[in-house]
Amino acid sequence: MASSFLSKADNAEWPDTVQGTRQMYDDWAKTYDSDLMQHGYNAPTSIAKTLVKWVPDKKARVMDMACGTGLIGEKLLKAGYSSIDGLDMSAESIKICKEKNIYGRIVCSEVTTNRLDIDNGGFLVIAMKQAYFETNYGGKIEAAIQSMVQLSKWEVVARDHLEGYFGEHNGVTFVFKIM
Known about the structure:
This protein has a single domain (4-8, 15-178), classed as Rossmann fold. The chain has helices at residues 4-10, 18-37, 43-54, 71-78, 91-100, 136-150, and strands spanning 62-65, 84-88, 106-108, 123-129, 154-166, 169-178. 40% of the residues lie in helices and 23% in strands.
């Protein structure tokens, strides 16, 4: 049976506040990897393939947005990327992520319109379930993305649809160039 956290994620039952979302991920951090991997979480492999397709320079600086416990970073490292940073709002997830020694730098913060601590010309990657875009949560994400693009802080490199992103659920992978 799926954990209560996985059930929330699967049903897009997200808190309405940044603090609530941070707390949910802090509480989930210890079982996050096993919960997702036991239930067909293919995002790490998919985003690594997307990055290889759109950013073939393995020395390019990459920011893994919402890096969580580092599952995507592990696949990026395995794909040959050598300059990977992570950003996540969950301090508990970052503790686990640091133990894996994947990222050069890890920033504990939510995404804002403030400048990210990443070199111009670097790339940002993020993946999420397609269903999130049909919720209030997804609307906020889409608005934040559009804001960053309109402010010329990010340039869209790729927005790929992924079948089988998480079990039977489809997903979206984004690659942005940091301006």
